[in-house]
Design a protein that fits this description.
The complex is a heterotetramer, with two copies of chain A (325 residues), one copy of chain B (308 residues) and one copy of chain C (511 residues). Chain A has a single domain, classed as ABC transporter involved in vitamin B12 uptake, BtuC (Orthogonal Bundle). Chain A is 74% helix and 1% strand. Chain A has 13 helices and two strands. The radius of gyration of chain A is 20 Å and the shape is globular. Chain B is α/β, with parallel strands linked by helices and 308 residues long. Chain B contains eleven helices and twelve strands. In chain B, the strands form two sheets. A six-stranded parallel sheet of chain B has the order 2-1-3-4-5-11, with helices on both faces. In chain B, strands 7-6-8-9-10-12 form a six-stranded mixed sheet, sandwiched between helices. Chain C is α/β, with parallel strands linked by helices and 511 residues long. Chain C has a domain of 239 residues: Rossmann fold, CATH 3.40.50.300. In chain C, strands 6-9-10-3-11-12 form a six-stranded mixed sheet, with helices on both faces. Chain C has a six-stranded mixed sheet with strand order 18-21-22-15-23-24, with helices on both faces. A four-stranded antiparallel sheet of chain C has the order 2-1-4-5, with helices on one face. In chain C, a hairpin with a 4-residue loop joins strand 16 and strand 17. In chain C, helix 5 packs across helix 6 and helix 14 packs across helix 15. Chain C starts with a helix and ends with a helix. The N terminus of chain C is likely disordered. Classes of the chains: A mainly alpha (325), B alpha/beta (308), C alpha/beta (511). Chains in contact: A-B, A-C, A-D, B-D, C-D. Chains A and D meet through helix 5, helix 11 and helix 13 of A and helix 5, helix 10 and helix 12 of D. Bound molecules: adenosine-5'-triphosphate (2 copies) and magnesium ion (2 copies). The site of one magnesium ion has 6 residues of chain C, from helix 2.
């Protein structure tokens, strides 16, 4: 017996595992390619969708770590808003994009670290700890912004999200490239380093991780911090897109981000997660909304379709999984 | 939609409201549809999927630009955030007509709107008149960062402060939030705290509605004077029953109509004025049945929304 | 034996209650069972034997409706029997004690025992009846002191095993399957279980008994069936066979000595426990472990052996006292990581909930505690991980389809070996082994004992916890006995007898 | 052996377990009693808060079953909106409160059953399945309502939520009494019946439940249906409160409801849950919002405070838990 089923996991099957989300994406593109007007398949529209995927994409990279470790972060939407507000305030103050970006990302890191500390220190489940941060970060954002959006000089930050970048040879917005490059780096971090393995181990069985001497608390804090950093970066990008700091932005975005990560093949029970899949999930969500607008369907139809697609994509994945078992 | 059959020759106009599920926008939609059919335009009506989310509205604009519509008619959720994407639209030869709320960009073809500050002033003067210049009042705000309602709140509060020193504003920092339920709950809590105010102001339909119900609950209808903004069936009924002292009513139907008509003119290369005021009217029990006002309160929605 | 089967099924002298024939099952590509037959008669204990991964548990899970066979047919009491789920099986009178504990830790003992079988009136649970039935079942197992209203999560693993067994008793089943019921029971509990089995047998219940303890099999079993690589390897009556013959059927060869001894000299002290109190208000324990020493820790369940080991490993806090390690015997405290760095590693008795990350691969589990051995600057080399894992798979004989197979797909015994592989990969100095042979087959057990000796001869110190006193006497140099949370007596192994150990474990002193 | 610690659980400790949320509630009332004006402690204000707790309270009763079984239901907010819209439509159509209520509750049951079927049939984690329903139910509500509020004759339905009921001897709104009575009934269902034990067992260890012959699929479907029924009832009450059917109502309410249940002592990991606690949690949330308005703090402060209280209440509970162990 044995060996016949030599299920090597890794590399080649990695592609096979990606089949679920990629198939879903292709399906969405094909369907809208048929029902929506031609312009849906135009190069320009693809650039538009690419830029629209950046914020959810960045959020999804960080969230993949959290979900792989068996946690969840409901605060990312609020943290994005807070980071966008802080970036705007700093631009107002110092008019230096570098400083503003650093502080925007920094506040994300702080929120993430607080999440991690509350989860590990007070031993509160991530859902609740980050639900608290969901309100706190949003409240602070509104406070800082004086319950208003903030107009600030944007410097070159909007360039990051320019759909048609001034250097036209880079084809899509610099933000898209940043997301791709960070995605690759984070995929290496998750799959090829000790930190990544520890993330998987914690998600799979926390007491085993503890038994094996993994510093569970420290690792978790780092994971939530990482997620916060990416939320902060997404907030900066959000500021780039809006050119204003908006304390009410990205409300409910956490659900899109979580959906992207899960569509990408992560398991909310922990122990499974793929950055590449999460990014494909983010693009899929963007294509869905874009296609619905192209096809001119009313919002409520769009809401229903997105609901169905989320279920269908995950069902496909779980079906494929169960088949291979 | 019936493009594959042949091709519709009618220009396509994208009308982008701030949201799709408020009566105000419904009425704008009806007005837009009417203008569309008058002017041989295909109207696509599409708001942001998540209401009050700037980024979502930008996405809608971007997508329409990618789709290549002939004109964009938009009520921007933000006077700055929408600028880059609208610039892009006009850069690609798509004229932009702005309605309801202004934008900090002079590339727009025209701006069709209610003067919201003036609406707030109208309401303030009515409160001042009803209270004879003295008493205690409160304002329940709508949602943080909503430009049009903030102008109304500001117009109202500034006028009270400057013209009616005898009127004390006991609370003006509570936001009801974007939903009717939220407005109602906040109104209840406010009135539990200040049950003996003389008048209250709601800067939009959900806020007014929430206040009306909360006043009703403590049996102070008519005692606490309610001055509100916008109309809906329940509010009109409230006006008739004396639960509401006055409503400042905009003309959303005309807004949709004028904006889309302006789009036609632009497509045809005709000149349009820079600003078109659709006006706002103070409606009370006395004048509510006057001919013009009657239509303001009951716009012909069914005719223009169900035919399509 | 084989010839007798047609005769039996024709129903002459021995009626057949359960008849499984031609059962086949595959997990993906792994053929777990290939045309297996099993016949069980009423009122008899049928032992099911085989190496780790032979397919015993799979066969029993098919019988209990937990999984469905790919092929084959089952007859129960002469009727076709095809349970679609465990409920069908229970309704048909088949009860099962699973190899891994299957308990809901948030529920009470009574709720666990009666799960799916609550006495109720119009949907309302009759609590007093439930209590009564539970106490009755626990009483039969000699554990009337377990309160039916205790939350299960508060019991020790041994007590949980008792609850698991009690659940099978309340079913009044006609066929009762016990998959390694004694793997974490203490000796006197085993005795009581055998007594229960005898009574059940008398009342006509058929029992299928799976165990890697052949002495137990010989004592309680009547008939046997041996599986090997998912096929029948032989069956018959136990009184007509010998242990050696059974081993030969299982592994294809015989084993001479159960407890192989490797020469190892005892060196300097390397772990010293001074007046350590593991539970508030408990008495202090002291212990010294030397290089090259195998020190056994005996005691009844709940005596605190696991806690003591966990305290040494840094998993639990110590109430008071000192722990020192290394050749300099310097104080040792801090996190698990710090202690692992100083060479103290632990094998958990609870492999499912603590010992292994079940959803991850054999390789990941093996290198988990010491990734530095297979990585540079934090970057893991997949090739080195594979090589390292393959080495341990070979040496420990872990039956698997490759280093990257998920641990959850392995049989119980093979999982245990993966957990051991991790400590070996980490190359710790002090091995804290809590029930290291739990669920391991005879042949592998011998390998593990040999491994222990080998480690000792290389100067490692081993602290071995086992509920199997024979095993301790056979392998250890020194044995310490715990009673109510502290070590009561420590002697060289050859100064102990099984009776004396039990005596200290039960009463706390040797007199 | 040991046995000294034969910890009897039940009844008396049940009260002790309630200490966490009750303490939190008392604390909130005391704090606001001090900082807010007298009106906060008025009888009328307590009636207001009682009525305001009904919707979250009803939702929390159903959600307790779901969370106890180890699941989660993100769709309740949308289902509340859908039920309120359907109730309004049916009042428009038939002008019969009984029919309208039945259909409002019925649509809730249908949504819940669909959730349960998707979760068990397609083997999708509850988070994702109900996230799908979150969009679908909201979309259908908007479609049915024509993206607008529905004005309908309300019949006697608003009476249910009248803060000062016409029969003044019943003191608080009939809806409050309905919630309390249903709460007691459901507490019995959860704690004293086989269905309840099965719910706990599934949440505690699903494979054990299956191996013990519990019909896990059927039980789960029933659990989600129950949650849907309570969401439907909450939707009816929402209609009663607003006297209009509003498709945008109760957005994000699922988070309040989940927070109430968790504050009440349930564990998101499953196997623990208390109806009484969940109801106290709902009242606590209502008091928080009410008190903040009384104290006149701006909304952003309120958001921050609610975030902190959620974390604090759960931290208190987890601290107490770990202490007792
Ligand atoms: N869930 C599963 N998925 C894939 N393969 C499995 C699964 N469960 C068992 N197997 C495989 O089936 C074979 C038989 O396993 P089984 O658990 O029946 O062995 P066993 O005889 O009970 O062994 P042990 O004595 O170790 O408990 C093994 O090769 C094992 O790897
Ligand atoms: N009767 C009991 N009631 C409650 N808890 C108990 C009981 N017996 C043991 N425990 C718990 O188990 C721990 C001690 O048992 P431990 O697991 O260390 O013993 P052990 O000798 O390893 O026994 P086992 O063979 O059961 O593993 C204690 O921390 C105690 O909390
Ligand atoms: Mg087995
Ligand atoms: Mg133990």
């Amino acid at each position: 017996m044995i060996e016949s089923n030599g299920r090597r996991v890794r590399l080649v099957p990695d592609l096979r595992q990606m089949l679920g989300p990629v198939l879903g994406l292709v399906l969405v593109i094909v369907i809208f390619g048929i029902i929506a007007p031609q312009s849906f398949l135009s190069v320009y529209n693809f650039k538009v969708v690419a830029a629209q995927s950046v914020i959810v994409g960045l959020g999804a990279i960080g969230m993949t770590f959290v979900i792989t470790s068996g946690g969840i972060d409901l605060s990312v939407g609020s943290v994005i808003a807070l980071a966008s507000v802080l970036t705007a305030l700093m631009m107002q103050q110092f008019d230096s994009p570098v400083v503003a970006i650093a502080l925007g990302v920094g506040i994300g890191a702080v929120c993430g670290a607080v999440n991690g500390l509350v989860i590990t220190g007070l031993r509160i489940v991530p859902f609740i700890a980050t639900l608290g941060m969901f309100g706190i970060a949003r409240g602070i954002a509104k406070y800082l912004a004086g319950e208003q959006k903030i107009d600030a000089p944007a410097g070159w930050i909007p360039e990051l999200m320019a759909k048609e970048p001034s250097a036209s040879w880079i084809l899509v917005a610099p933000g898209v490239w940043i997301t791709i490059v960070l995605g690759i780096l984070m995929a290496i971090l998750l799959n090829r380093t000790t930190f990544g393995t520890n993330t998987f181990a914690i998600g799979s069985n926390e007491s085993t991780a503890r038994l094996c001497g993994i510093q569970v608390r420290r690792t978790k804090i780092l994971i939530y911090m990482l997620c916060g950093i990416f939320a902060g970066l997404a907030g900066v990008m959000q500021f780039g897109r809006l050119t204003v700091g908006d304390p009410t932005t990205a409300l409910g975005k956490e659900l899109d981000i979580i959906a992207a990560v899960v569509i990408g093949g992560a398991s909310l029970a922990g122990g499974e997660g793929r950055i590449s899949g999460a990014l494909v999930g983010a693009v899929l969500m963007a294509f869905l909304a874009n296609g619905c607008t192209h096809a001119g369907v009313p919002n409520y139809v769009q809401e229903i379709i997105i609901g169905i697609i989320i279920i269908a994509a995950v069902a496909l994945d779980s079906y494929r999984h169960s088949g291979s078992r | 939609e019936h493009r594959e059959g042949g091709h519709t020759t009618n220009p396509v106009v994208a009308v982008i409201p701030k949201g799709t599920s408020h009566e105000f926008w419904k009425t704008v939609h009806a007005g837009a549809n009417e203008a569309g059919s008058k002017n041989d335009l295909e109207i696509i009506w599409k708001g942001p999927a998540r209401e009050d989310d700037r980024d979502e509205q930008i996405k809608v604009v971007e997508t329409f630009v990618a789709r290549g519509v002939d004109a964009i008619v938009i009520a921007p959720l933000d006077d700055t955030a929408l600028v880059p994407s609208l610039k892009e639209a006009s850069g690609r030869g798509i004229p932009v007509i702005v309605f309801d709320s202004d934008i900090k960009w002079d590339g727009k073809t025209t701006f069709v709107a209610t003067d919201n500050t003036r609406g707030g002033e109208l309401a303030a003067r009515e409160v001042g008149r009803l209270l004879d210049g003295k008493g205690r009042i409160l304002v329940m705000r709508y949602v943080e960062g909503s430009a049009s309602t903030m102008k109304r709140e500001k117009g109202f509060l500034d006028t009270i402060a400057s013209e009616y020193p005898g009127i004390e504003v006991v609370s003006s920092n509570q936001h009801g939030g974007a939903t009717v339920e939220g407005c109602y709950k906040t109104a209840e809590n406010l009135l539990a705290k200040y049950p003996d105010v003389d008048a209250v102001f709601g800067p939009c339909e959900p806020a007014t509605f929430g206040l009306m119900k909360a006043i009703d609950d403590i049996d102070k209808e008519g005692t606490i004077l309610l001055v509100g903004f916008d109309a809906s069936d329940k509010l009109v009924e409230g006006l008739r029953d004396g639960k509401i002292a006055a409503l400042v009513v905009q003309n959303p139907f005309a807004m949709g109509d004028l904006a889309v008509t302006a789009a036609r003119s632009t497509i045809d290369g005709d000149d349009v004025p820079e600003f078109m005021d659709t006006g706002c009217t103070l409606i009370t029990l006395e004048n509510m049945d006057e001919p013009g006002n009657k239509e303001l309160l009951n716009p012909p929605l069914d005719k223009w929304l169900n035919t399509k | 034996m084989i010839d007798s089967i047609p005769e039996r099924s024709s129903g002459s002298d021995e009626p057949i209650r359960l008849d499984m024939s031609g059962i086949g099952h595959r997990f993906g590509g792994v053929v777990a069972l290939d045309g297996v037959d099993l016949q069980v008669a009423p009122g008899r204990v049928h032992a099911l034997l085989g190496e780790n991964g032979a397919g015993k548990s799979t066969l029993m899970r098919i019988l209990s409706g937990a999984i469905r066979p790919d092929e084959g047919r089952m007859m129960l009491e002469g009727e076709p029997y095809d349970p679609r789920n465990p409920r069908d099986a229970r309704d048909a009178g088949v009860a099962m004690i699973y190899q891994e504990l299957n308990l809901a830790r948030h529920l009470t003992v009574a709720q666990n025992i009666l799960l799916g079988r609550e006495p109720s009136r119009i949907g309302l649970v009759r609590r007093s009846a439930a209590r009564r039935i539970t106490m009755d079942a626990l009483d039969r197992l000699g554990h009337s002191s377990i309160d039916p209203d205790t939350i299960l999560g508060r019991l020790s693993p041994g007590q949980q095993q008792v609850v698991e067994i009690a659940r099978a008793l309340v079913d009044n089943a006609s066929v009762l399957v016990m998959d390694e019921p004694t793997s974490s029971l203490s000796l006197d509990d085993v005795e009581r279980l055998f007594e229960v089995i005898r009574r059940l047998k008398e009342s006509g219940v058929s029992i299928i008994y799976i165990s890697h303890f052949l002495d137990e099999i010989m004592r309680v079993g009547d008939d046997y069936t041996v599986l090997r690589d998912g096929c029948n390897a032989g069956s018959g009556r136990l009184e007509q066979t010998t242990t050696d013959e059974l081993i030969r059927l299982m592994i294809g060869r015989t084993i001479e000595d159960t407890y192989p001894r490797t020469d190892h000299g005892i060196g300097d002290p390397m772990l010293r426990i001074d007046d350590v109190v593991i539970e508030p208000g408990g008495s202090p324990s002291s212990l010294t472990l030397h290089r090259g020493e195998i020190l056994g820790l005996a005691g009844l369940m709940g005596a605190g052996r696991t806690r003591l080991a966990r305290v040494v490993a840094g998993l639990d806090d110590v109430c008071s006292g000192r722990i020192r390690v290394g050749s300099s015997l310097s104080p040792c405290d801090g996190s698990v990581r710090r202690r692992l760095d100083r060479g103290i590693g632990m094998l958990s008795e609870d492999r499912k909930d603590e010992g292994l990350a079940m959803d991850l691969s054999i390789a990941t589990n093996t290198v988990l505690s010491r990734p530095s051995a297979v990585s540079t600057l934090g970057f893991t080399s997949r090739r080195r991980v594979t090589t390292a894992t393959d080495g341990w798979r070979d040496r420990l004989g872990i039956r698997s389809s490759g280093p990257w197979q998920r641990v959850s797909m392995l049989s119980g015994g093979n999982q245990q070996k993966v957990a051991l592989a991790r400590l070996l990969h980490h190359d710790v100095e002090v091995f804290l082994l809590d029930e290291p042979t739990r669920g391991i087959d005879v042949a592998s057990k011998r390998e593990v004992y040999a491994l222990l000796g080998n480690l000792a001869s290389r100067g490692r110190g081993l602290l071995v916890i086992s509920s199997h006193v024979g095993e301790l006497l056979g392998t250890c140099d020194t044995i310490a006995v715990m009673h109510r949370g502290s070590i009561r007596e420590t002697r060289a192994a050859d100064e102990w007898t099984e009776r004396e150990i039990l005596n200290v474990a039960m009463t706390g002193s040797s007199s």
